[in-house]
Amino acid sequence: MGLTTESILGWTRVSVLLLTMGWAAWMDHKDRRVGNEHWMVWVKPALFLWALDLIAQEADWTIFLTASAVVAYASTAIIGRPTLNDIFSGSRIDLLVSLWYVISLAGIIGGSLKYGDVSPLDVLVGNETGAATLWWSTISGLLTILIIDLAWRFRLIHGGADAKALMLVAILMPNWDTMPLISEKTSDSLVALPPALALLMWGGMTFILIPFILLIKNILNSNISSFADLKLSWHASKMKLNSVKDSHVWLLTSVMQMPDGSSKIYNKSRAPRRTPTGEELDKSIKELEGFDIEEVWISYKLPLLVFLFPAIIPLALLGDPISHIMPLIGL
User: Fold this and answer.
1) In this structure, are residues 170 and 145 in contact, taking their beta carbons and an 8 Å threshold?
2) What is the C-alpha to C-alpha distance for residues 164 and 77, in angstroms, rounded to an integer?
3) How far apart are CA 123 and CA 143, in angstroms?
4) In 10 A of CB 122, how many CB atoms?
5) DSSP track, 37-70
6) Domain locations in the chain as residue ranges
7) Which of 147, 179, 264, 281 is the most exposed place for a label (fewest CB within 10 A)?
8) Residue % of the chain over a pLDDT of 70
């Protein structure tokens, strides 16, 4: 089977995504931080590939400016939003960004006037093709970015790097037509999540394996000696006390003051809602050292990016997980 323009662009997108997410996952694993510079660098090939794709499909100016609106919305996660005070103060960068918003909005308005008579439902079921389909699929990227942005602000997605990564995926792979799907279930499915949200779902599925991996690890390391240990072994592990401060973990073992004035060692069943300060952690460690504790139960701070990176493989090979789940439940 010969290569087509679409397949070349598609596999190039997958390659860029692997490089982007692999590098980001490594930084998040090592330092629990991915700087904005990383996303600023890797959004450039994403924009280049999207522009090539739109040129190949002979998109008009409204579609290009609608794509610009998607990028403009996503950019607020990196550069923020200019305020009226910023604009009236004469800030050149804020004036340029505001002008970018206005021009992009013109594309949305122009596209709605030009293609608004085409029902998005007709596009969804495949009754409509051509420029109208391309414009509706492009503007759907705004909804994807909105969902990611709201999930971030309402703390459903905890890390800013995770949200920015998913926004970059939404720009790099705005719809399933931009991906070289090996499985045809997604392309044949009437309802499918956008690629960015599908990646989030694939990544979330890998979390299901964590309790079993931790349980096996604790059994092999002989960390389970009581029923209380068994309850912890599904979501926690043991670590040398002197290694806790230099590791990305939450300390679950602590010293509890009893009503009679005595103290006892207590293992919390879950990580704290608020990450303790360095001083608070030092105090807890010193208290445990006073009881000659050498090993403690900890909960790992698992960055989502580490799970999103391997999830690229089922995303590229299988597409949307919903398109595989729905037939299994008779839908």
Assistant:
1) yes
2) 7
3) 16
4) 14
5) HHHHHHHHHHHHHHHHHHHHTT--HHHHHHHHHH
6) 5-180, 190-331
7) 264
8) 97
Residue 2 has pLDDT above 70, yes or no: no
pLDDT confidence tier of residue 209, bands split at 50, 70 and 90: confident
The answer to whether residues 303 and 29 touch, using CB atoms and an 8 Å cutoff, is yes
Angstrom distance (rounded) from CA 51 to CA 45: 10
Q: Are 25 and 308 in contact (CB under 8 A)?
A: yes
**Distances in whole angstroms, Cα of residue 44 to Cα of each of 106, 149, 207, 251:** 23, 21, 31, 40
* pTM of the model as a whole: 0.86
- What average pLDDT does this structure show over 98-108? 94
Residue 39 CA, distance from chain mean position: 13
Residue 1 is predicted with a pLDDT of: 47
- pLDDT band, very low/low/confident/very high, at 167 (cuts 50, 70, 90): very high
Mind giving me the DSSP string for 149-198? Answer: HHHHHTTSS--HHHHHHHHHHHHHS-SGGGS--SSSHHHH-SS---HHHH
Task: Answer whether residue 183 shows pLDDT above 80.
Answer: no
Q: Check residue 239 and give left, alpha or beta (phi > 0: left; psi -120 to 50: alpha).
A: beta
Which pair of tokens denotes residue 131? 């420029």
Token pair of 193, please?
């999540």
Distances (CA, A) of 286 to 231, 245, 252, 268, 299: 26, 11, 14, 18, 19
φ, ψ (nearest 5 deg) of residue 310: -70, -20
Return left, alpha or beta for 119; rule: phi > 0 is left, psi -120 to 50 is alpha, else beta: beta
Tokens of 14: 């997958």
d(CA 225, CA 232): 11
